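Please, structure for the following, as tokens.
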Amino acid sequence: MNKYKEWDLLDSLPRGWVIDKTCGSPLHGYDFITNGKSAVAGQKRALLMVLPPQQKFAFNAENTQKRDAPKQEAERQQEQVIDAHYVRTVNDLARKKFKEKLLNDIMVDLMICEIEGWPKIEYIDEIKELINGIGATA
């Protein structure tokens, strides 16, 4: 039986043992398991090998890949056509979200100006100059 430090490395979960979700594993691909007892009552620990969900299905998929190969090849050959209106719509949405975030940030800064008693008009003038400066160089 293999060991990592003082813990046994197991391939399957023994009967009556449970996965311990209270601590992380020191070893990649393994999770701690315990015999279900408390630390005072003689708890035993070990490391159980776990596979990501993608690897679990890979063993069953060997036979299906051979049958689906021509179908997959045909799907790869088709070119994906992206509509120009789609790209513009996505860009417009991104710009609107950015404007909304920018406006929210400005509103927060204006509220801070109000709380601190600073003149809001100075802050607004600074933003106007910044935007006008961008337009002048572009």
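The first strand starts at residue 3 and ends at 4. The chain has two domains: 3-51, 84-137.
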